[in-house]
Design a protein that fits this description.
The complex is a heterodimer of chains A (about 475) and B (about 90). Chain A contains 19 helices and 14 strands. Chain A is of the alpha/beta class and about 475 residues long. Chain A has a 5-stranded parallel beta sheet with strand order 2-1-3-4-5, sandwiched between helices. Chain A has a 5-stranded parallel beta sheet with strand order 7-8-11-6-12. In chain A, strands 9-10 form a two-stranded antiparallel sheet. In chain A, α2 runs parallel beside α3, α3 packs parallel to α4 and α11 packs across α13. Chain A is globular, with a radius of gyration of 26 Å. In chain B, a hairpin with a 5-residue loop joins β2 and β3. Chain B is globular and about 40 Å long. Chain B is of the alpha+beta class. Classes of the chains: A alpha/beta (about 475), B alpha+beta (about 90).
Chain lengths: ~475, ~90
């Protein structure tokens, strides 16, 4: 069998093979004949010409690995575009240590097929390389365009389409993804679109809500345990990481992950290996991680809530989903989709929105985003007696600004206001120290942090406050 | 919901799982991704009943996790039985 060739293009300021390049060569050599080109930053333009002559040099690589250090982004992008022009569909895998998600997305658009982070591991690199050099008719999953894709992704606004258009490129690479967006914007829907558009589509998609798992059990849930690992551990239990092997693990509310679990997850992301509780054996798993949060994770890092190294490891590619109030023009389409869905579900004839009802929907701020809109329409369809939903039919408590609040609503509002003022007062006294403030409130830190999140209080703004 | 509709959904799930024996997802994912690939559209309640029926017959396995999500996957021990069922006319 003819050995396929891989070209490693190492761009670095030293002009000599980088450590990454040295590490990559033996990893690839069992499967590929490896050719290496090392060029310094100053010689990038020369590389362009060199790469244009690749076919003359009879390198004929089936795969190109690009290794580059920070600071030469524009040149690398030009290089990628040049290679794509010269060699057509040859897959490019980018290997780098530092990640700027926006840069990486631009590189995906320029034609990069996948990203690999250092340290390099053979069991991570080779499957991804093999997947990319498979002939097109041997792909295990359907092409993205032939999928019945995006049936639930509805909208025409620029902000929405901007994110959706990135999904095919993100799906075809195997890098970790971080999805940001307010609650109800559809983060899990996007995560599934990435999974089912990827080469992992035929494998497990395991969604996990990190915030819904008791703190003490998170590690066990993710990594499993051996029999006798702790009291009542009568049998071995596999973790979600193992269940997601060769598939995708979607970690929602990643900011709720306890520190110990963050350390273990970080190790797993770096080494692709983990140790179940009570086990002396290290296990390996090939899992793509898609993480999500409705918080500004950089702020959570600054507050010490999320480890910086974990954040950078996850934030290789990021998607930021727009809130519904920033895509108001999509509301009629989304509302129509839910009208049809719930008319079917409740076995009702086709129901439509009256113009005043639609106008009311358009003026609401939708703090719960698409999920809130769905519930409003579901309720309206369920209660609708005719074929048209009137303005008065669709108004749930959150939209009914002009109506009198119920006792429960008024109480909730007052309690919320009290909590907010109380927490702000404590943070002022403790100069933004959340642990101290939680202690004074006689709450555990996690619960106190959740209250801070709930009321969207910026604890760091109290750090310079003098009592 | 009619018995035949539930059977139709259940059959589609089994067909998907025979083609993708390593697949696993929640009801939401099955509804959004597996069934559309079988050209089927249904509501959550109907799908829930079909899944319950398949779990009851031990053709698929469900696991409830600490975050309360329920994941479904094929029962590989029943693969032959599933294939035999699918050979029968619907």
């Amino acid at each position: 069998m003819r050995v396929q060739r891989a070209l490693v293009l190492d761009i670095n300021t030293a002009g000599t093979p980088s450590g990454t390049c040295v590490a990559l060569r033996p990893i690839l050599s069992p499967d590929f004949r490896v050719d290496v080109l090392v060029r310094s930053k100053q010689n990038v333009l020369t590389d362009l010409a060199e790469c244009q002559n690749l076919s003359n040099r009879r390198l004929n690589p089936v795969l190109v690995f690009l290794i580059f250090s920070t600071g030469v982004f524009q040149e690398v992008r030009s290089l990628i575009e040049s290679i794509k022009k010269q060699i057509g569909d040859i897959p490019l895998i980018l290997v780098n240590e530092s990640h700027e998600p926006n840069d990486l997305l631009r590189l995906l658009e320029a034609g990069v097929s996948d990203f690999i982070s250092t340290p390099l591991q053979a069991f991570d690199v080779l499957p991804r390389a093999r997947r990319l050099v498979k002939p097109a008719d041997d792909q295990s999953c359907e092409s993205f365009s032939s999928h019945p894709l995006f049936p639930q992704m509805i909208g025409e606004s620029a902000g929405f389409l901007g994110q959706v258009r990135q999904i095919p490129n993100i799906a075809k690479c195997d890098a970790n993804v971080l999805i940001g967006g307010e609650t109800g914007t559809g983060k899990e829907l996007y995560a599934r679109a990435i999974h089912y558009g990827s080469a992992r589509a035929s494998r497990a998609f395991i969604p996990v809500n990190c915030g819904a798992i008791p703190v003490d059990l998170v590690e066990n849930e993710l990594f499993g345990h051996e029999r006798g690992a702790f009291t009542n551990a009568f049998a071995m239990q596999t973790g979600l990481v193992e269940e997601a092997n060769y598939g995708t693990l979607f970690l929602d509310e990643i900011d709720c992950l306890p520190q110990m679990a963050q350390v273990k997850l970080l190790r797993f992301l770096q080494e692709r290996e983990y140790r179940p509780l009570g086990s002396s054996r290290i296990r390996k798993a090939n899992v793509r991680i898609i993480a999500a949060s409705n918080l500004d994770l950089q702020e959570a890092v600054a507050l010490g809530k999320v480890r910086a190294d974990l954040f950078y490891r996850l934030n290789i590619i990021s998607l930021s989903l727009p809130p519904l109030r920033e895509r108001l023009e999509d509301i009629p389409l989304i509302a129509q989709h839910f009208l049809e869905k719930y008319s079917r579900e409740f076995v009702k004839q086709e129901i439509q929105l009256s113009p005043p009802a639609l106008a009311r929907l358009m003026t609401h701020r939708w703090p719960g985003n698409v999920r809130e809109l769905e519930h409003v329409i579901e309720r309206a369809v369920a209660l609708c007696e005719g074929t048209t939903i009137l303005e008065t039919d669709i108004l749930p408590s959150s939209i009914s600004g002009g109506l009198i609040e119920s006792l429960q609503e008024a109480k909730a509002r007052e309690i919320g206001q009290f909590e907010k003022n109380y927490i702000r007062g404590l943070l002022r006294v403790c100069r933004g120290n959340i642990t101290k403030a939680a202690g004074l409130a006689q709450k555990n830190r996690r619960a106190f942090w959740q209250l801070i999140q709930k009321h969207q209080i910026d604890a760091s703004s109290f750090r310079s406050t003098v009592t | 919901m009619s018995e035949s509709e539930r059977a139709h959904i259940a059959r589609a799930i089994l067909e998907y799982l025979v083609r993708n024996p390593c697949a696993q997802d929640t009801l939401e994912g099955i509804n959004q991704w597996w069934l559309p690939q079988e050209l089927i559209r249904t509501d959550r309640a109907t799908l829930g009943e079909a899944l319950t029926e398949l779990v009851k017959r031990k053709l698929i396995l469900q696991s409830k996790r600490r975050d309360s999500q329920i994941h479904y996957r094929i029962n590989v021990r029943k693969s032959q039985e599933i294939k035999a069922i699918l050979k029968l006319r619907p």
